[in-house]
Design goal:
CATH superfamily of the largest domain: Histidine kinase-like ATPase, C-terminal domain
Strand content: 5-15%
Helix content: 55-70%
Number of helices: 10
Number of domains: 4
Order of helices and strands: HHEEHEEEHHHEHEEHEEHEEH
Radius of gyration: 48 Å
CATH class of the largest domain: Alpha Beta
Oligomer: single chain
CATH architecture of the largest domain: 2-Layer Sandwich
CATH topology of the largest domain: Heat Shock Protein 90
Strand order of the largest sheet: 2-1-5-4-3
Largest sheet: 5 strands, antiparallel
Number of strands: 12
Distance between the termini: 76 Å
Structural class: alpha+beta
């Protein structure tokens, strides 16, 4: 008999004893609980029937009293008001019927013409139009004949004598505001608590039986493990020490236990695992070699990145060195231009020199702005302040190309924490790009709205052709531009990305659903978040220094 069968027989025996005891206790407890629940249900049902009968009786009494009071109130209101209206000229009657405080929801004057036809003029609500239905017309003619008022629900038809009581020409149609009375509340009866079953003896017997059964299962399992598992595994351990010491073959031999048992199966599984381990070791060596090659490639990429950084540093140094003589040359060109007696051709040449030197000076400034990380002077400012600073700088450029500029600034926006001048530079660069991308007489739109995380979102859209998908990943790279040679340096969006990143924000590009062109979206965190981040980082920077 195998180990699995032996342990299964012991567990099944203990489980059967435990199940029988629990089943007996459960059935006894169920009978007791069922009896208590039936008694409680009968008592609750009787109390509910009595409560429902009392509630129905009170509601019927209330309904009758409400109906009587409402009818009485309506009759007194109508009679008092109609008596007050008596003798009023038909011309003045309309003013009194249209009064908002007269207690009437709708008011109309029905006139019987000379040809015995009926016409109705609505006085309230003002501007309403209505006609008499066949039933209403029949009721109105009855009032004309009997000269007595009639009620139709909450609508009163009352004869109106202006002066001559022998001749009745008018009937008033009044829909009254009948007050409503709140329904009475009937407190629900307090049900008596259910009878609790005395399960103390049953619980004691159940816990005792459960403890004894669990103890029996524990003893049986310990005996089975010691006799049929731990002893044979000692033999497996002693034989496996040979493999641990480096013997070849990776196979357990010399098993003392009987053949065909569970331990033999376990040993076979160990041997298969050892074989798989050897295969995995060979595969791991291949993966290590592949990882080594990957690291070498990454090291080469790192060297290239370091060389690019060194190139940027050198470019910044060259820009500093070029700026000094460049400023002198630009000043000399401007002084030459101011000299008198120059002919037109010489002046044109000097203007070309001045324009070229100005472009070189702008390029040097962009290289310096891109290569260095400037220390910001952070402060709180309103989101629309950078827009007010940048718009005058690009408005002439847009007017020259006849572009329509649309501004959309949401109210009650949170403040932003950062450098207002740098955010102005971001908006100016984005507006310049949008004006260059939009066609002649096109449209540019800038909006400032609340961000998804409680911050602020700047969006700049244009009606151009948009940014192709294949260059979206490179659009913020330094010196990358899609403009014609001489019209762009490729540093504007790189500087924008650097400034937004320094402010803890994010910039993305997508297709504008409104204008059809490109849409640059800048998300900046709220001032409170940036304040807290700055306070946390400040001590760390002090420790580093």
């Amino acid at each position: 008999m195998s180990l699995r069968v032996k342990i299964a027989i012991g567990v099944l025996a203990a489980t059967a004893v435990l199940a029988a005891a629990l089943a007996y206790l459960g059935l006894a407890a169920k009978r007791e609980l069922d009896r208590t629940a039936n008694n409680q249900r009968d008592r609750t049902e009787r109390e509910f029937i009595e409560y429902r009968r009392e509630t129905e009786t009170k509601f019927e009494q209330y309904r009758r009293e409400q109906q009587r009071v409402a009818i009485k109130a309506v009759e007194e209101l109508v009679l008092a008001w109609v008596r007050d209206l008596a003798g009023t000229a038909i011309v003045d009657l309309g003013f009194r019927l249209r009064d908002e405080d007269n207690g009437v929801r709708e008011a109309a004057i029905i006139t019987r013409e000379a040809d015995d036809t009926l016409s109705m003029r609505v006085e309230k609500p003002k501007g309403s139009r209505a006609t008499l239905s066949a039933e209403e017309e029949k009721l109105v003619r009855t009032v004309f004949e009997t000269r007595q008022h009639r009620f139709d629900g909450d609508v009163l038809y009352h004869p109106y004598f202006e002066e001559d009581r022998d001749k009745l020409r008018y009937v008033l149609r009044l829909q009254l505001r009948v007050p409503t009375v709140a329904s009475p509340s009937v407190a629900a009866p307090v049900l008596s608590p259910p009878e609790s079953a005395d399960l103390g003896p049953l619980a004691l017997v159940g816990f005792t039986t459960l403890a004894l059964a669990m103890l029996a299962v524990f003893v049986l399992l310990m005996f089975a493990l010691r006799r049929f598992v731990l002893a044979p595994l000692g033999n497996v351990l002693s034989e496996s020490e040979r493999i641990v010491k480096g013997s070849s073959g990776l196979e357990v031999r010399g098993l003392v236990a009987g053949k065909g048992g569970d331990i033999e199966t376990l040993v076979a599984a160990f041997n298969a695992m050892f074989a798989e381990l050897k295969d995995y070791q060979s595969d791991l060596e291949g993966k290590v070699n592949e990882a080594t090659r990957t690291i070498q490639k990454q090291q080469q990429s790192l060297v290239i990145a370091q060389r690019l950084a060194a190139t940027g540093t050198m470019a910044a140094g060259l820009a500093h060195e070029v700026n000094n003589p460049l400023s002198g040359m630009l000043n000399a060109a401007r002084r030459l231009k101011m000299r008198e007696g120059l002919d037109e051709r010489a002046r044109d040449y000097i203007e070309l020199i001045e324009e070229g030197l100005g472009r070189i000076e702008g390029l040097m400034k962009q290289i310096l702005d891109f290569s260095r990380r400037r220390d910001m002077k952070p402060e709180r400012f309103y989101p629309d302040s950078p827009l007010k600073r940048s718009l005058p700088l690009v408005r002439h450029r847009m007017e020259k190309r006849k572009l329509k500029l649309e501004e959309d600034v949401a109210p009650n926006l949170p403040q932003v924490f950062g450098n207002e001048e740098e955010i102005s530079q971001v908006l100016m660069n984005l507006l310049i790009n949008a004006s260059d991308a939009a066609p002649e007489a096109g449209e540019v739109r800038i909006s400032i709205t609340a961000g998804p995380d409680g911050g602020v979102t700047y969006s700049v859209e244009d009606s151009g052709t948009g940014v192709p998908e294949e260059i979206k990943d490179r659009i913020f790279d330094p010196f990358f531009t899609t403009k014609e040679p001489g019209k762009g340096t490729g540093l504007g969006l790189s500087i924008v990305h650097t400034i937004v990143d320094n402010h803890g924000g994010k910039i993305s590009i997508e297709r504008s659903t409104r204008l059809g062109g490109a849409k640059f979206v800048v998300n900046l965190p709220p001032a409170e978040k940036r304040d807290s981040t700055r306070r946390i980082q400040a001590p760390r920077e002090a420790e580093a220094t």
